[in-house]
Design goal:
The structure holds 2 protein chains of 2 kinds. By secondary structure, chain A is α/β, with parallel strands linked by helices. Helix content of chain A is 29%, strand content 26%. A 6-stranded mixed β-sheet of chain A has the order 2-3-1-4-5-6, sandwiched between helices. Chain A is globular. In chain B, strands 1, 2, 3, 4, 5 and 6 form a 6-stranded antiparallel β-sheet that branches. By secondary structure, chain B is of the alpha+beta class. Chain B folds into 3 domains: 102 residues, Beta-Lactamase (2-Layer Sandwich); 92 residues; 156 residues, 2-Layer Sandwich (Heat Shock Protein 90). Chain B has 11 helices and 11 strands. Classes of the chains: A alpha/beta, B alpha+beta. At the A-B interface, strand 2 of A face helix 4, strand 4, strand 5 and helix 5 of B.
């Protein structure tokens, strides 16, 4: 079975841990628990009849308190860039991380997840914003770790990209 | 460098490192690890095989993160480098779902490749940053609460200013409409005016409902005795809330209220508390050190009168007439909105009471308000 290391990147409190929890265990908790360092989970996905063992590296969010150690990224096959759809400034932080990851890992598959899609009243992105990001080459998923919306699809899509010999990346 | 006076050999008890929560593992030539000394409790919990003495251990099979870190560790061990390399923290989850924060350090001591596993040692700088930020946020949230309160008072004032003339306009239009001198067309136009006034009153109610759930319309309220607030109780709550401020200034509070009398009044507890809070806080602000602020509750012409007295400089005569007006600021109060006493007035008057100021004999200020007693319970 092939093993693929997938990192979740994003600033603090965007929902990285909740996304992993939803994807691996199918559960969600409203209680916010900040991640220190890294927490690793695994889940096997079947892609085109072949099993892929996804090692999901849930990394601490980077902010003024915690810097992301780039050594955690070593060996990653792909990553998910997580943005809080109700806090626009988390996009800027995510893009900074994206550039760091690019410098460390090169051109590997990555997707952008606009999380907390259930909080429609507080949603901070409109259609032109998304169109602009898509024009820049981003594949974007609107996800809700709370409702489960888009979560399986996002991880599946990345797993698919990791299984493709010449993945289309940003 | 050779020591001129070598230290005596140090023999450590096997349990020392385990008691410090540190697991010391030595890398063996076959790639497995041996545990040196005793295993700390957390290790035997997460890696039960560590309890068996001499067991070849493969912690990286359980701790997936270690598999990643061992690449760096091997580099240090194989190159026989001095110093150490740390993994940074990671989290393990046991079968019960409990999380364990761990950290690994690889080092070479006397040519032996060692791996130390332990819960991370507190990083005081990070802790300080977190405390700093928490405190800053505490201050910010405090500031926001104050700001929200201020806006709520402002909202009260705006609503009051809008609703009071509207009631007058509506009354006048209604009277005019009943007048025989007004013909049919005039009555129709007057009705349009009345409808518009009612519509605006509806808007005001909507504003109150949307932006200030706790704010009740500023109209006389029919309060039953069983739900009415007791002004003496409220006075005690207010002095308790201001106790720290009072202690800072060395000012004492004294409440004079007959304990055998029930001091219920027409009004609503939360706003009554704000009225009294404003008056007592003002009194405290102007009191000289070691003085006393007196809150007196007594009967007066069928009403309940509450008086707040301080030993401060009092209010200058030319300020007395505008004291309860909007944006009226006392001396040395630049930056304050000047809405506190105005809020007190519109609230007390809204409940059918009166409020006023009179100089205190000798030195000081005396603010008072009178409120009707509540309707007896059915």
């Amino acid at each position: 079975m092939r093993h693929k290391k997938v990192c979740l990147l994003g600033t603090s409190a965007v929902g990285k841990t909740s996304l992993v929890k939803r994807f691996v265990q199918g559960i969600f908790s409203d209680k916010y628990m900040t991640t220190v360092g890294v927490k690793i989970d695994r889940k096997t996905e079947s892609i085109d009849g072949r099993d892929v063992d996804l090692l999901l590296w849930d990394l601490n969010g980077e902010d003024r308190f915690q810097k992301l150690s780039m050594s955690y990224l070593r060996g990653a096959s792909g990553y998910l860039l997580v943005v809080d759809g109700t806090r626009r400034q988390t996009l800027d932080a995510a893009l900074v991380l994206h550039h760091k990851a690019r410098a460390a890992l090169g051109d590997i598959p990555c997707l952008m997840l606009l999380n907390k899609a259930d909080l429609t009243d507080a949603w901070d992105f409109d259609q032109p914003d998304l169109a602009e990001l898509e024009a820049q080459g981003w594949t974007i998923f609107r996800t809700s770790a709370k409702m489960g919306t888009g979560v399986e699809e996002a991880f599946q899509t990345l797993a698919q990209l990791l299984s493709t010999p010449d993945p289309a990346t940003l | 460098m050779k020591a001129l006076h070598p230290f005596p050999a140090l023999t450590l008890p096997d349990s020392l490192l385990a008691n410090l929560n540190i697991a010391v593992l030595e890398r063996r030539p076959d790639g497995a690890f041996s545990l040196l000394g005793e295993a700390p409790d957390w290790l035997t919990h997460l890696l039960p095989e560590a309890e068996t003495f001499g067991q070849a251990l493969h912690p990286e099979a359980t701790f997936l993160f270690l598999d990643h870190f061992l690449v760096e560790a091997e580099h240090l061990w194989n190159n026989r480098k001095e110093g150490s390399v740390s993994s940074g923290p990671w989290t393990e989850v046991d079968v019960s779902g409990r999380e364990w924060l761990l950290e690994a350090t690889a080092l070479r001591v006397e040519d032996r490749p060692l791996l130390l596993l332990r819960p991370p040692v507190t990083d005081h700088q990070t802790l300080r940053n977190i405390l700093q930020e928490s405190r800053e946020q505490g201050l910010e949230s405090h500031r926001l609460i104050k700001e929200v309160n201020k806006r709520e008072v402002l909202l009260h004032c705006i609503v009051h200013d809008l609703s009071t003339p509207l009631a007058g306009i509506k009354g006048s239009l209604s009277l005019l409409k009943e007048d025989d001198l007004v013909k049919d067309d005039g009555k129709r136009l007057l009705q349009i005016g009345i409808n518009q006034v009612e519509k605006m009153q509806g808007f005001i109610r909507q504003i109150l409902h949307s932006f200030a759930q706790e704010v009740q319309p500023l109209l006389p309220t029919l309060v039953k005795a069983d739900t009415a607030p007791d002004v003496a109780d409220i006075a005690r709550d207010v002095t308790t809330a201001l106790q720290a401020y009072g202690a800072l200034k060395g000012v004492r509070f004294r409440i004079e209220a007959d304990p055998d009398t029930v001091w219920k009044i027409t009004g609503e507890a939360m706003r009554l508390e704000r009225v009294l809070f404003n008056l007592v806080e003002n009194a405290l602000r102007y009191s000289p050190p070691q003085a006393e602020v007196v809150i007196r509750v007594e009967k007066a012409d069928g009403f309940v009168q509450t008086t707040v007295e301080d030993a401060g400089p009092g209010v200058q005569e030319e300020q007395v007439t505008s004291l309860f007006n909007k944006f009226s600021q006392g001396p040395g109060l630049a930056g304050k909105a000047g809405l506190g006493l105005y809020f007190c007035r519109i609230t007390v008057e809204g409940w059918g009471g009166t409020i006023g100021y009179s100089p205190r004999p000798g030195d000081g200020a005396r603010f008072w308000f009178r409120l009707p007693r509540p309707t007896p319970a059915a």
